[in-house]
Design brief:
The protein is an alpha+beta fold. The protein is built from 6 helices and 9 strands; from the N terminus they run E-E-H-H-E-H-H-E-E-H-E-E-E-H-E.
Length: 205
């Protein structure tokens, strides 16, 4: 059976590629860190539960946070990015012009994850040893502030293939939404302070 977007009756621009090139650093924060059953989260809690923490404990927490913040999947060497995050970024940007539902209905990606492009080693353990890929900043937790370490990529790029149903969303409208997303929405963590901004391009394949 032909793919949904190739079947008779579906008018579509079929194949597109969206490329995002960072204009500000990308901070990664894997949503899996919100899962109390995540092995890294459990390991962090065994250290944070100590009443008195040594410097060694604090460095261990930072390392676990950094590793836990990355998206890594089988089949991709090095850090990856869920295409669902890209899709959500575009939907949120489109909501400002009441086109969020149109983007949600019109765009689908062919892969669940894509490689995160950057200038640096693809080996995660080697990457961790380079402090230029670390962001250490205070964040508010309840009423207190605590230090958090997140993976940071000063230069980055993503390319995701998919298809567009152009009877739902016009190609030129998609280009404008991508432009708006790069300027006002961004990708990754701490977007409110300007991280994760990009210039985007979409082409027909």
């Amino acid at each position: 059976m032909a793919p949904l977007h190739k079947r008779k009756g579906y008018r579509t621009m079929a194949d597109i590629r969206i490329t995002l090139t960072g204009t500000s650093p990308l901070l990664c924060h894997n949503v899996a860190l919100a899962d109390p059953d995540n092995p890294i989260v459990k390991e962090i809690k065994t250290i944070t539960s100590k009443r008195v923490k040594t410097e060694e404990d604090r460095r261990a927490i930072e390392k676990l946070e950094w590793y836990g913040g990355l998206y890594t999947v089988a089949g991709i060497v090095g850090p990856a990015m869920p295409t669902g995050n890209i899709r959500k970024c575009l939907i949120e940007a489109a909501k400002t012009t009441k086109r969020g539902k149109d983007v949600s209905r019109a765009i689908a990606f062919t892969a669940l994850h894509v490689p995160l492009g950057y200038d640096g080693p693809r080996d995660i353990d080697v990457l961790f040893t380079d402090q230029s890929f670390h962001n250490r900043a205070a964040v508010k937790v309840s009423m207190a502030r605590t230090m958090r370490v997140r993976p940071s990529f000063s230069t980055w790029q993503l390319a995701a293939d998919g298809f567009l149903l152009d009877d739902v969303l016009d190609f030129d409208d998609l280009k404008r939404i991508i432009d708006r997303a790069g300027l006002a929405e961004g990708l990754g963590d701490n977007r409110v302070n300007g991280y994760g901004r990009f210039v985007g391009e979409v082409i027909k394949l």
